[in-house]
Amino acid sequence: MKQYIVAVIALLFLGSCSHKTIAVEAVKNDLSGIWQIISVNGIEVVKKDAGKEMPYLEFNAEKSTVTGTTGCNRLNGKATINNNSINFGPLATTMMMCQNAKYERPILQTLIGNLSYTYERGIITISKEGRTIMTLGR
After folding, report:
1. CA dist., res. 31 & res. 20, Å (int)
2. How many structural domains is the chain composed of?
3. In angstroms, rounded to a whole number, what is the distance separating the alpha carbons of residues 135 and 96?
4. pLDDT of residue 114
5. CA separation for the pair 82, 89 (Å, rounded)
6. CA dist list (Å): 118 to 75, 84, 105
7. Would you say residue 45 lies in a domain?
8. What is the pLDDT of residues 56-101, one digit of tens each?
9. Would 121 be classed as within a structural domain?
């Protein structure tokens, strides 16, 4: 009987260790860093149509900021990450002219206001009103 009780306690202990709940703060910090824009409004982002470089966003969750590029112009501003939402504040951009800057307008029009997001397997999916508007990856 003693062995049975020890075995049950050991199984309960091991079971509690194997299932870890990730705190919201840990997920929030996972978003910090550079994320390449994979798609915007369902259109895959490819280098030949991006302008000078591939578009990306860099989040700093601790400072609630975002920087990056649309492929042509640099951007920066507020990005407050809470639970499953990102609230983009006013964004400032440079104003250079670039050929092939196909994604600039859609990116800037997408990053407005309070948006929801999911983070799964290294991919951020940003949605508005239940519709995917942007995906980001590392």
Report:
1. 19
2. 1
3. 25
4. 87
5. 14
6. 23, 6, 23
7. yes
8. 999 999 999 999 999 999 999 999 998 899 999 999 999 998 888 8
9. yes
Q: How far, in Å, CA of 56 to CA of 75, rounded? A: 10
- Domain region containing 118: 23-137
Residues contacting 58, CB < 8 A, separation 6+: 33, 34, 35, 66, 67, 68
- Read off the amino acid at residue 7: A
Q: Running DSSP on this structure, what letter comes out for residue 62?
A: T
Instruction: Give DSSP secondary structure letters for 66-119.
Output: EEEESSSSEEEEEEEEETTEEEEEEEEE-----TT-TTHHHHHHHS-EEEEEEE
- Domain contains 14: no
* Triad 116, 122, 128: Cα angle to 5°: 15
Query: How distant, in Å, are the alpha carbons of 18, 21, 113 from that of 77?
Result: 39, 31, 12
For residue 129, what is the domain's CATH number? Answer: 2.40.128.270
Contact 64, 79 (CB under 8 A): yes
Rounded Cα gap, residues 78 and 63, in angstroms: 9
